[in-house]
Inverse folding.
C-alpha cells in the first residue's frame, strides 16, 4: 500500500511509472499558494524593525525608549530587555500554535485551499487592528489575529506545495514557501527603513501594509485548485483525477492516481489521526518530522536574528537607520540562499545541505561569540571595523541557514507523513515550531542581557546536537514520491525495528 500503509505488498514502488510535465496551471497554483510564506516573512521582518522605531517605543514603551537613548552610542546588551515588548512579538506565535489544531480539521475535512483562505482573512484583520492600535491591548489582539492567519497558512501551504509537486522537483517547489517568506522579510526591512523616516506614524504604515500580501493570497486563493490528494481524501475521485491530469499535463496518471487511492483508503480507516500519529509504526515521522526538525529549526538561533536584527545591531552600537539597513542586507542574503537551495536541493539532497550548512553555522556563531567577548564590554562604543565584520559573518550565517534549516525545516516534515496522518502531523509540526518560535522570541532579549556573547555559544552547541540528529536518524528523501516515503523507514538501520510489514503491525502496536 502506498502512503505509508504497511499493509499491502501490491502498492508502492510505482514511482517509475509516474509521468508529468510542468504546466502553466501547475506553476500558477504553486506560486499563489506559496504567497502564504509572505505573510510569515513580512511579519518576521516588520516586527523587529517596528520595535526599534522611536515613535513606536515612545507611544507604547516609553521606559524602553528612555533606556535606549541613555545608551544610544554604547554597546549595551540589556537596552531592549522588556517582557511586554517581547510579548508584542511572541503573542503572534502563541496564537499560531493554538490555531493550527483548528487548521488541521479544516485542512483534512475541507481541504488545503480552505485553510489558505481562512489564514488570509485572519491575517488581514490582524494587520488592520495593529495599524490602528491605540493601546497595548489592541496591539496584542491584532498580533493574535495575525498568529491565527500564520497558523492556518503554515499548516496548509507546505502540504499544498508538496502534494502538488512531482517527486523529482518537490524540493524546489516546496521551497517556494521559504522563498516568499524570505522575500517578505526583505520587503519588510526596506519598508521599515523608509517608514522610520515618517514621523510619528511610520510604524503604523509598516504594520498596516501586511494587508497587501494577505489580500493577494485571498484573491489568488479563490482561483486555486484543491490538491488531488485532498480531493481523494474527501472522496471526490473524479474531480481528483481531473486536477491530477491538469497539473501533471498528461492523461497518463494511472500509477500515481492508484497510489493516491491506496493512501486514501488507509486515511479513511483512521478515525483519530492524532492518536494514530503516536503508533509505533509512525514513530519516525513523529520523532523526526513532528518534533525534532521543527524544534531544531528555531534553536539554530536564526529567528532571533530575524526578529531582532535591528535591535541587535542597535544594541551593538549601530544607529537606528544603520541597523535597519544592516538587517535589510541580511534579509537579502537569505533570499540568495533560498535560490541556492531551490537550485540544488533535489540534486545534492536534504542531508548534505543540513550537515554542510550546520558546520558552517557553528563556526560563525563561535566567531561572533569570540568577537563580542574580546572587543566589547558594557559602555564601550562599537568600532566600525568590528561592526562591518559582524554584519559580514552574520550574512554568512544567514546564507548557511537559508539553504538548510530554513527551507528544509518546512520541506522535510511535509514529505514524511502518510496521507492518513498528514494534516495532523503538519499541525504538530506548526505547533512545535511556533512553541519554540514564541519561546525564542520571548526569551532572546533577556538571554542576550544576561548571557551576553554566551547566547551565541549556546546556539552553536545546539546546532552540533541537531547535526548529529540528522546524520544518524534522517534518511535521504530526495526524488522519492511522497506516497512512498514509508519505504525508507523499512530500510533504515534504526527505524526498521519500528516499521515492519503489516503482518507484525498489531503485535508491535499492542493492538488486538
Amino acid at each position: 500500500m502506498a502512503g505509508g500503509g504497511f499493509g499491502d505488498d501490491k502498492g508502492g514502488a510505482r514511482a517509475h511509472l509516474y509521468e508529468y510535465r510542468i504546466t502553466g496551471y501547475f506553476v500558477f497554483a504553486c506560486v499563489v499558494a506559496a504567497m502564504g510564506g509572505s505573510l510569515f516573512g513580512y511579519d518576521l521582518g516588520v516586527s523587529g524593525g517596528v520595535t526599534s522605531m522611536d515613535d513606536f517605543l515612545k507611544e507604547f514603551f516609553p521606559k524602553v525608549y528612555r533606556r535606549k537613548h541613555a545608551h544610544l552610542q554604547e554597546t549595551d546588551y540589556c537596552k531592549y530587555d522588556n517582557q511586554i515588548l517581547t510579548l508584542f512579538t511572541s503573542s503572534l506565535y502563541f496564537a499560531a500554535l493554538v490555531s493550527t489544531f483548528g487548521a488541521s480539521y479544516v485542512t483534512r475535512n475541507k481541504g488545503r485551499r480552505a485553510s489558505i483562505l481562512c489564514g488570509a482573512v485572519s491575517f488581514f484583520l490582524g494587520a488592520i487592528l495593529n495599524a490602528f492600535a491605540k493601546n497595548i491591548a489592541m496591539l496584542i489582539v491584532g498580533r493574535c489575529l495575525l498568529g491565527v492567519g500564520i497558523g492556518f497558512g503554515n499548516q496548509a501551504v507546505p502540504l499544498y506545495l508538496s502534494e502538488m509537486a512531482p517527486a523529482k522537483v518537490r524540493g524546489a517547489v516546496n521551497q517556494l514557501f521559504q522563498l516568499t517568506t524570505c522575500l517578505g522579510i526583505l520587503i519588510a526591512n526596506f519598508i521599515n527603513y523608509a517608514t522610520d523616516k515618517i514621523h510619528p506614524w511610520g510604524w503604523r504604515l509598516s504594520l498596516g501594509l501586511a494587508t497587501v500580501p494577505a489580500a493577494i493570497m485571498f484573491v489568488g486563493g479563490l482561483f486555486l485548485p484543491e490538491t488531488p490528494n485532498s480531493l481523494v481524501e474527501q472522496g471526490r475521485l473524479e474531480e481528483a483525477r481531473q486536477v491530477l491530469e491538469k497539473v501533471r499535463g498528461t492523461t497518463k496518471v494511472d500509477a500515481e492516481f492508484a497510489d493516491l487511492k491506496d493512501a486514501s483508503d488507509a486515511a479513511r480507516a483512521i478515525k483519530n489521526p492524532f492518536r494514530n500519529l503516536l503508533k509505533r509504526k509512525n514513530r519516525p515521522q513523529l520523532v523526526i518530522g513532528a518534533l525534532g526538525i521543527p524544534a531544531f529549526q528555531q534553536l539554530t538561533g536564526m529567528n532571533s536574528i530575524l526578529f531582532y536584527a535591528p535591535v541587535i545591531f542597535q544594541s551593538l552600537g549601530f544607529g537606528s537607520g544603520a541597523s535597519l539597513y544592516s538587517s535589510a542586507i541580511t534579509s537579502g542574503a537569505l533570499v540568495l540562499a533560498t535560490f541556492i537551495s531551490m537550485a540544488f536541493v533535489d540534486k545534492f539532497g536534504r542531508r548534505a545541505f543540513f550537515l554542510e550548512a550546520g558546520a558552517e553555522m557553528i563556526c560563525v556563531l563561535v566567531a561572533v561569540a569570540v568577537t563580542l567577548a574580546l572587543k566589547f564590554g558594557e559602555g564601550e562604543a562599537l568600532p566600525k571595523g568590528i561592526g562591518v565584520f559582524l554584519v559580514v559573518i552574520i550574512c554568512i550565517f544567514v546564507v548557511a541557514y537559508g539553504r538548510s534549516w530554513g527551507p528544509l525545516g518546512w520541506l522535510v516534515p511535509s514529505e514524511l507523513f502518510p496521507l492518513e496522518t498528514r494534516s495532523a502531523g503538519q499541525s504538530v509540526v506548526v505547533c512545535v515550531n511556533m512553541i519554540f518560535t514564541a519561546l525564542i522570541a520571548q526569551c532572546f532579549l533577556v538571554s542576550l542581557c544576561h548571557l551576553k556573547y554566551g547566547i551565541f555559544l549556546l546556539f552553536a552547541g545546539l546546532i552540533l546536537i541537531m547535526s548529529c540528529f540528522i546524520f544518524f536518524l534522517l534518511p535521504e528523501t530526495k526524488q522519492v514520491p511522497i506516497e512512498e516515503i514509508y519505504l525508507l523507514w523499512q530500510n533504515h538501520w534504526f527505524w526498521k525495528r519500528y516499521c515492519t510489514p503489516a503482518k507484525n503491525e498489531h503485535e508491535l502496536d499492542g493492538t488486538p
